[in-house]
Amino acid sequence: MDRGWWWKFGLIVAVTLGCIWFLIPTYYSLVVLDRDQRNNLAVLEERMPSWAPPAKYRLNLGLDLQGGIHMVMRVDTKTALQKRTERRAQQIVNYVNDKKLGQVSADTDPEKLEVTLTAADPATMDAIQKEVLATFTDFKEVNRSGGSLVLVQDESQANVFRTEAVDQAMLVIRRRIDKWGVAEVDVRKLGSDSIQISLPGRSNPEQAKELVGTTAQLEFRMVDDSNPQFFAQLLQATPPPPGSDITVTTEGGFPQLQAPTREAIIDYTKDKVPENRVVLTECIANPVKKNECSSYRSYLLDRNVPLTGESLASADANISQLNEPEVNISFDPAGAREFERLTEAGVGRRMAIVLDDNVQTAPNINEKISGGSARITMGRMGGRSFEEWLGEAQTLALVLKAGALPAPVTVGEIRQVGASLGDELIKKGGLAAVLGLGLVVLFMALYYKASGLIADVALLLNGLLILAGLAFFNATLTLPGIAGFVLTLGVAVDANVLINERIREELGHGKTARAAVDQGYDRAFWTIFDSHVTALISAFILFFTGTGPVRGFATTLIIGLLASLFTSITVTRVIMTYFVHGRNAKVVSV
Amino acid sequence: MQILKNKTNIDFISKRKPALFLSTVLNLAIIVGIAAFGFNFGVDFAGGTVVEVKFDHPIKAEEVRERAEKGGLPDVSVQNIGAAEENTFLLRMGGVTQLNEESGAKGKAALEALGNVRNVYVDMPNGIIRFRAAQELPTDAVKKAVEDSGIGVQEVRELGEAQGGTGFDYQVVASGMADRVFAALGQGLEKPDFEQRRVDYVGPQVGKQLRNRGIMALLYSMVAILIYVAFRFDFKFGPGALMAMVHDVIMVAGYYLVTRREFNLTAIAALLTVVGYSVNDTIVIYDRIREDMAKFKGKPFAEVINIAINDTLGRTILTSGTTALSLIGLLIFGVGEIFDFAMAMLVGIVVGVYSTIYIASPLTIWLDERAAAKEARQREGGNIDQQQPKVA
Lengths: 590, 392
Description:
The complex is a heterodimer of chains A (590) and B (392). With 590 residues, chain A is an alpha+beta fold. Helices cover 52% and strands 21% of the residues of chain A. Chain A has helices spanning 3-22, 24-32, 41-47, 63-66, 77-98, 125-135, 155-180, 205-213, 230-237, 262-269, 333-345, 386-404, 419-472, 479-508, 513-545, 548-582; strands at 60-61, 68-75, 104-109, 114-119, 139-145, 148-153, 186-190, 194-200, 218-222, 247-251, 254-259, 277-285, 293-302, 307-308, 312-319, 325-331, 351-355, 358-361, 373-377, 409-417, 476-477. The longest helix of chain A is centred in the last third of the chain and has 54 residues, at 419-472. Chain B is elongated, with a radius of gyration of 30 Å. Chain B is built from eleven helices and ten strands. In chain B, α8 packs antiparallel against α9 and α8 (237-259) packs antiparallel against α11. Chains A and B meet through α5, β3, α8, β20 and α13 of A and β7, β8, β9, α7 and α9 of B.
């Protein structure tokens, strides 16, 4: 037995133990915890022994196996772009009239995203054309004849707008789902115009559709600071219910309630607010996970909504001359008048910007703002990096746009699986896997005797490696994934069959046990390598083009093939070498 | 234990012509069949709504269909899944929302009756009616008008003032089909006697996207594998492997065509896996051919291939056998598409073995013979270039 053997043997033992160790979170989340606690990382972390790997490294059950809703929402960027074209056309007309370049009227073609400007006096068109094209750079000239000019949205600008519309929709959906308190949601972009949402454990698709399908409501409401101590006094007068964890914190001189959940604050303040007032909450972002709220704080707001997102014309994040991030907003004429009135009456007060009943920010009104455009500065930099600071401005601009420019969202796909069906599928899938695997193991042991048993050891390790690998990548196990698991193990045996047949052949040629084993492995190596690489190619392509369950299948296949390369070549060889070299066996039992 | 006691010496290659003929005929028949009848596209690709319901008492598929029809769903298809005593059914409908041509026209008329409503456009695929009104309308009134015409309304959206023209834009979003199915089945019952187990709802555009991506995935993987085979082996091995892959994919597609089982995303996964498995098998034999070419230098190529196939025959039967064995669990316990997947794989394994012997190998021989003939011609023409059959 040379040192190389011990080294390899040690590696295999380490890999095996490592796999078992890595499956602890999976074991706890699927076997030890109750079903409704399954996705709760905090509980999982608490229950597991301290030496276990972090709870996030665990195998998730796909929605088809645990019940839940998978949705794909399509953002109707076409409608949004049509609305934008109409708005821009109106802005062009206003601009031309304001600059006193002449009288024009605009007509839009929503299908082609074209704007036709017609001048009352054709002679003024030259000047208008020059000025408009220089100012409205997102438009390009299509043609010009006399007093009429046809403009079209620049394609690259339109694409930026489309991307933005999808980002906005995604943001709104994220915030809405957060409001509903659904754990372990996954919201991500799919292709260029779709958003994929996974809601484990939810069962009502119509409710979910409503949740994400309605357009965002943006409102501007005045904060009631007439009694700055309102929340502090409230807490003193009526102690909050135990367990709600409501405390008072002071932010910018105003005491506010703070609680880990939104419901705690809303429930507690219900029936305790003065007439014509309402309490809404703001999400305090988790410093680590940006899309989650670590806690919520309360605002006392006027009940009436003087201004909504429909009056908003644009919102953009910029960096000011003082090198501070800010958001510039502008209103349409009616909105501008209302905004002027509000800011005049509310100098010194705060104005809350509310999206879907969530307070986004509540900037202070420094002075009366006329002209319909305003600037929201992003407060002090605090401990944030400049990127984070600027990021907040960009998020706010997105929020404002999302409320202002409704890009309608339609349902592309909904797949909902009831919890009981999920349980049944797990049971059946597990049975199928165990039966398939058992038959293969039994067959190998009967057919190849000792060598078959060695191959079986490799096969079981292969299964363990697949599960640990899936847990490491935090992959999702789906029903097709189970099929992939079974199939991969079936294919993995293929390599050992190749080797064993080769060894038999070499023995048939009259070689010694040692020589036969060594040659068997050497000869079979490239064949096994080639067949695994080709299978990997198709698995990777499946992974990159597939969605949902198919992707789960591909992931299982990829990990399984890599594991099979290791187990069938290295693991079985180390064991075989032990018998023929280390113990000097003269006969190979194949 | 050994499956093949003695070394076989079957002359596979001599029967290659009738085999090739048979395969070609079968493949063409399947392609023609696909063109003529098409697949039974599942909701993944065709778009539409599928719901799975499990009744708490024994019920026949006809009764379920009757109930659905009585509830106002004439074009529903009902299919029993799983064992009969499970009382579980799949109900499939074309539409994804309650908006169809008939109800859309009614909804349009109802909106126009509100007065001052222009440009009503029924966007059936998205389940949305868009319209522009001369002045602002209360959304409740719009919702009521549309619902009274028989369309379930999920939401009425105000898109705000039309800035290019005059008027206000609205969208009426119709409710989903699944709602309607459950309502129809539960009509007249105090409490539903069934459990809603699953709802799959795929919009038509998404369906088309999924289908195109699936087909692209198949093509990409074939090309990638072809490149790899050409790179690792001699060029003449490439086309054989490719044709074998194409053959196997068509045969498995034939399974879906003939059985009318649902062709969906899982079917694409099955086809891709068959591609991987088929080429796996081909490569094992190619490897052996390459090895034997070096071993028996003087022998004709066809004979070498015969030896290689016979050498690996035991292995081929074994590996296919073990893979098939692992599928047995899925065949017994697999429900719906997983059963189909396992079945398709089984077909794939069988035709994969066949195609390696009768498609991939003969094509390689043919390419080799052509190359040899060309060489011979060149040699006669005075271009003496002593090239032995290449050993990669």
